[in-house]
Design goal:
The chain has 651 residues and is mostly beta strands. The protein folds into 3 domains: 110 residues; 265 residues, no CATH class; 160 residues, Jelly Rolls, CATH 2.60.120.40. Helices cover 10% and strands 42% of the residues. It is built from 9 helices and 47 strands. Strand 42 and strand 43 form a beta hairpin. The chain starts with a strand and ends with a strand.
């Protein structure tokens, strides 16, 4: 019995309609396709119930969004969930014509229009300064400032030919590949189980590197702060003598961080606790300060003051003007302030109190303030000048997240499969299927010989199958960047691009007294001149000492310095297809390429066979005395007919 649930409602199904599900996780003939379970289009009748489900969207005057949405969908056969996740209303005639899709398809459909820039990577935001760059050298996840020369001219002051000193003005952060995959999958509501073996290497990438990207989200400034006076009891003086040097707005408060998105609190001295705003912004500050007078009633003025430029006067704003009595009272304020007088790169704001020389006593526990809202009016340009700017870790490219995953799977000849029950997304190398032979499904005895199996010898391979990196006019591809798999089949077409990555290749160069690193030709003396294709590269951690320099400031790092490489002489594992990747990850396909056999047969598969099938496991069939990779299954939900199965022999 078939039960179809769409958008939480049971749909009416034509009893005579044939519903076929097609399962094909990673067809070998086109490794670039990563699909999943889907159904062949089928019809639903125009019953009142189905019209309600689809909101009668076929009516010309209808404004329903149903035809433009992925509708949650589950199909059950005899109570068994067949692992479909959503459906699409493709057309309407005398019936509603729909198609269902499973987990992998669900993920790729959701990601195909999502840019990498839509990932929430705020936890990797950081200050672009010498300390952060140095501290990143030991990172194994997130971001790292690998040593790369981004300059067009080999004679440059940033990564010079001689010496061991780098000026980081043109140094971009890179991000670890596994980190990007983890964020994409987890932000899609899944758990990543990534089994790719990097062979002892550390793959990173520059996703664009076309410009440094600021974090324009004003919410990063929001937070809650507690207030503590410099003493329980304090007063401000109107007559300043040599021993007392208060600010002109009164005595300053001290703050402590209660909950803040990022660290912009800057207690730079006893009398100057400050909060740092890096942009021209509108902020809403709300709070309450609690205190009492220790004598007669005292007029109190609390001022929020912020800097207008680096050397000018502060701009004061009165937030509290009250009379303090001998009993504790809370004095509330809620102010929206435009911090637009920013002429030098950062705004600091501070609170001060004027007690007219009288003494008051604070209650710290009930004295707090919050930055509730921040709207960026103008984001100031980014420049390497210390702790004034925050940059996003990945220098976002224009690729979408689905393309990113596809590139990852192509690079490592990998299969991705989602377990719908556990919401775990598995990524495994194709070679793991052969390794998993000990756990193979035994489908012996399930063959239906009513129709004889058909064997084909063409899996759409050519005699020359090319593996390519994207061309980039700034790069002469190093030897070994692109590669081929040759097939001894005179009947196949002559040549085929089996796959092409969205990444460009990277040339190696020598800088800093012969140290080797990749060269990305982007800057001409700190001026951007080229749009750079995304790059992937490997880390080469070498015991060394280098110095980072900014003006008169030097920071020296001694340890494993993270140099970068793409194809490096003497390295067993590189990032070129011809040099390394084909042999590292595609050798399990050599036999399939050269002795291709697709067996199309009919098998008596049950609903449980389909529901429990994991494409990472091969199947064993005694009648053929061989193990197979399941390339495709066509399963009819609405009949007891045998399923049509495409099997590829594992060699």
């Amino acid at each position: 019995m078939i039960r179809l649930v769409i958008n939480g409602r049971d749909a009416d199904v034509l009893q005579t309609e044939t519903i076929v599900g097609e399962y094909a996780i990673a067809p070998i003939g086109d490794i670039s396709k990563r699909v999943g379970a889907r159904s062949i289009q089928f019809k639903l009748p125009k019953t009142a119930n189905n019209k309600a489900i689809f909101e009668s969207s076929e009516i010309p005057t209808s404004t329903s969004k149903i035809p433009y949405r992925n509708l949650p969908c589950r199909i059950y056969e005899d109570g068994v969930d067949m692992n479909m996740q959503f459906c699409i209303l493709e057309s309407v005639d005398n019936n509603y014509n729909i198609r269902m899709y499973g987990g992998n398809s669900d993920l790729f459909y959701n990601l195909k229009n999502k840019k990498l820039s839509e990932l929430d990577l705020r936890k990797y935001n950081h200050y672009w300064d010498l300390e952060t760059i140095r501290d990143s050298f030991t990172n194994t996840e997130g971001y790292i400032y690998s040593i790369i020369d981004f300059n067009i001219n080999p004679i440059n002051i940033y990564v010079p030919p001689v010496g061991s000193t780098i000026k980081p003005n043109t140094l971009h952060p890179s991000i670890f590949k596994r980190t990007v995959m983890k964020e994409i999958i987890e932000q899609s509501g899944l758990i990543l189980d990534d089994g790719i073996d990097y062979n002892g290497t550390e793959p990173c990438e520059i996703l664009g590197a076309n410009k440094f990207i600021r974090d324009y989200d004003g919410n990063r400034y929001n937070g809650k702060f507690g207030v503590s006076a410099l003493d329980d009891e304090l007063r401000s003086w109107r007559d300043i003598d040599l021993n007392l040097q208060p600010y002109k707005y009164g005595q300053s408060f001290s703050f402590y961080n209660i909950s803040q998105n990022e660290i912009f609190y800057n207690p730079s001295g006893l009398y100057s606790p400050q909060i740092l705003i890096n942009d021209k912004a509108r902020i809403r500050v709300k709070g309450a300060f609690t205190f009492k007078s220790l004598g007669a009633d005292v007029p109190i003025i609390i001022t929020l003051a912020y800097t207008a430029d680096q050397y000018g006067d502060d701009i004061p704003i009165t937030v509290v003007s009250e009379i303090a009595t001998s009993s504790y009272s809370s004095y509330y304020f809620d102010e929206t302030i435009d911090l637009i007088e920013n002429n030098f790169g950062s705004i600091y704001f501070s609170f001060y109190i004027d007690t007219n020389g009288e003494t008051i006593k604070f209650d710290w526990t009930t004295s707090t303030f919050e930055i509730l809202e921040t709207k960026i009016i103008e984001a100031l340009p980014i420049d390497f000048d210390g702790k004034n700017y925050v940059t996003v870790a990945n220098n976002i490219s224009d690729d979408n997240q689905g393309v990113y995953i596809s590139n990852y799977l192509k690079t490592y000849n990998a299969i991705m499969w989602i377990n719908e029950a556990t919401k775990v997304c598995y990524i495994r190398e194709f070679s793991d299927i052969k390794i998993n032979i000990a756990n193979a499904y035994d489908w012996s005895g399930k063959l239906d010989f009513t129709n004889k199996p058909k064997v084909e010898f063409d899996i759409d391979f050519a005699q020359t199958n090319r593996f390519k990196y994207k061309d980039d006019n700034t790069v002469i591809k190093p030897n070994g960047t692109d590669g081929v798999i040759l097939v001894d089949n005179q009947n196949a077409k002559k040549e085929n691009v089996y796959l092409e990555l969205s990444y460009g290749a990277s040339e190696m160069c020598e800088r800093l007294d012969g140290r080797k690193m990749i060269n990305i030709k982007k800057y001409d003396y700190q001026v951007t001149t080229e749009t750079v294709v995304p790059r992937q590269f490997l880390l080469d951690r070498i015991s060394d000492t280098i110095t980072l320099n900014k003006f008169a400031t030097n920071i020296t790092f001694t340890g494993l310095v993270p140099y970068s490489y793409f194809i490096k002489e003497g390295k067993e594992h590189n990032f070129g297809f011809g040099n390394s990747l084909i042999y590292d990850y595609y050798d399990s396909l050599f036999g399939v390429f050269n002795y291709a056999k697709i067996i199309e047969c009919e098998m008596r598969l049950t609903t449980l066979d389909i529901a429990n099938f994991e494409p990472l496991k091969p199947v064993y069939i005694r009648e053929f005395d061989a193990h197979f990779y399941v390339n495709k299954i066509k399963f009819e939900y609405t009949s007891r007919k045998s399923s049509v199965v495409e099997l590829i022999k594992l060699l």
